[in-house]
Amino acid sequence: MHSQSREIQEKKISVELTLNEALALTGVRFNDNHQLEIDAMHKIKKQLEEQIIDRRRHLQ
Fold it and tell me: In terms of domain of life, where is this protein from (predicted)?
């Protein structure tokens, strides 16, 4: 495996979730609030996008 690919795979990100958001991502269903899972996924995607954009800036 190429060392740069390994670095990308091992890079860590931090996302702050509420307890209920984290539970929703593990499969716990909140019948009255499906929005918890949606919000949690949105936070994770946003952080990933920020990391990708930041990485591209460093490569330029």
Answer: Bacteria
Annotated domain spans of the chain: 19-58
pLDDT at 60: 63
CA-CA-CA-CA torsion for 47, 50, 56, 60, nearest 10 degrees? -150
CA dist 60 and 55 (Å) reads 9
- Quote the distance between the C-alpha of residue 44 and its chain's center: 3
* pLDDT tens digits, one per residue of 28-51: 999 989 899 999 999 999 999 998
